[in-house]
Design a protein that fits this description.
The chain has 87 residues and is an all-alpha fold. Helix content is 55%, strand content 0%. It folds into two domains: 29 residues, no CATH class; 54 residues, no CATH class.
Length: 87
Amino acid sequence: MSEICQICGLVKELCVCETIAKEARKIRVYTVQKRYGKNITVISEVVAMRHLLRYSGVDSARQFNDRLIARMQGQRAIREYLEEDYE
């Protein structure tokens, strides 16, 4: 009778515990609050794309914030110019 692996319960010849241990990777779990009626496929694609961008070194949140601040400052300059124009 063949020996049985204590970890996975398979016969030693079929045991894959060492292979799984070599290929073990960390898994990130995200919790997304979803409103009723929103498309979960689109939400999951956004989360996946954000993860890939972050993995490649792109910080999309920081880029968005920088663009937003620049736009707000530009609108502020226009507003100040229009307030000074008394004609």
